[in-house]
Amino acid sequence: MTTIGAPNVELTGKTALVTGASRGIGRAIARRLAADGALVAVHYGTNADAAGETVAAIEKDGGRAFALRAEFGVAGDVETLATGLAAGLAEHAAETGLDILVNNAATVSFATLDQLTPEEFDRLVAVNTRVPLFLVKRLLPELRDGGRIISLSTLAARTAVPAVGYVMSKGALDIMGRSLAAALGDRGITVNTVAPGVTDTDVFAGLRDDPAVQANLRAATALRRIGRPEDIADVVAFLASPRARWITGQVIDATGGLALHPRTLH
User: Fold this and answer.
1) By CB atoms within 10 Å of each CB, which of 68, 150, 163, 192 scores lowest?
2) 69-97 pLDDT per residue, tens
3) Long-range contact list for 112-120, CB < 8 A, 24+ apart?
């Protein structure tokens, strides 16, 4: 029996788009979906070299992928991505059409309310909220019946953290997932959201040089370690698979049990 964490070929013949796939969690998701057999469109905003590294890693492992550029938060961003995706799929597959959409790309801000500016908030909403919503709308004609839509939210959306603008922009994806799940169910399309906690990526690069903070986070996590991008990728791969056909409209906690313990982080 296949288990999460063991790559297989159940996505063979499927196509997937992973936004923000040039590094971090997005790269891990792209590699995992490709390992499971999907042709993966590796979206990036500005870092072509990093996207190329993702594609190269997938191809080295025997998978199929192509890079796709579209800067988010600017005029025409969704249409740029949709046009490039259609061209890439036509070039690399026998037919166009999408099976899996992973909304992973995001911009991060730790600004508190007194620090947050209208301009910064507008960008957070544009990239983290508007693009996923209108990307789904734009790609629905290409998304095959029985497809998968998976968005990356955050544990912070169900806690109280100072970065109010960022959390608002990501928490909206939890609501979007439930609403779209109800709207698209008649096509057999499942819509789910994955909420990671603290994960060892460049966003939390400062943790790598702070043993005290790392120790506090491990103590506050039921599984006693900091998350890895592959931990999140395995959850996304499960939701993208036929095994998750009866799961929709859910927010999946992928934190290792962060904050389950009644401890205070220092």
Assistant:
1) 163
2) 999 999 999 999 999 999 999 999 766 79
3) 112/162, 112/163, 112/164, 113/162, 113/164, 116/164, 116/165, 120/165
In 3D space, the residue among 135, 29, 145 whose CA is nearest the CA of residue 76 turns out to be 135
13 within 8 A of 37, measured Cβ to Cβ = yes
- Per residue in 142-190, pLDDT (tens digit) is 999 999 999 999 988 888 889 999 999 999 999 999 999 999 999 999 9
Contact indicator for 153, 194 with CB cutoff of 8 Å: yes
Give yes or no for a contact between 54 and 78, defined as CB atoms under 8 angstroms apart: no
The residues near 125 (Cβ < 8 Å, ≥ 6 apart) are 168, 169, 172
Residues noted as catalytic: 166
Give the other-Cβ count within 10 Å of 175's Cβ: 14
Rg (CA), the chain: 18
Residue with tokens 């290792």: 256
User: Cβ distance 75 to 91 under 8 Å?
Assistant: no
Q: Outline where 38-186 has alpha helix (H).
A: 48-60, 77-92, 118-125, 131-139, 164-184
Q: How many CA atoms lie within 13 A of 66 on its CB side?
A: 13
Neighbours of 215 (CB within 10 A): 11
**Rounded CA separation 114/111 (Å):** 8
Distance CA 123, CA 109 (A): 10
Mind listing the domains of the chain with CATH numbers?
Answer: 15-201+228-254 (3.40.50.720)
Report which DSSP code applies to 189: -
User: What is the C-alpha separation between 67 and 5, in angstroms, rounded?
Assistant: 25
Identify whether the C-beta of residue 100 lies closer than 8 Å to the C-beta of residue 14.
yes
- Look up the pTM and report it: 0.91
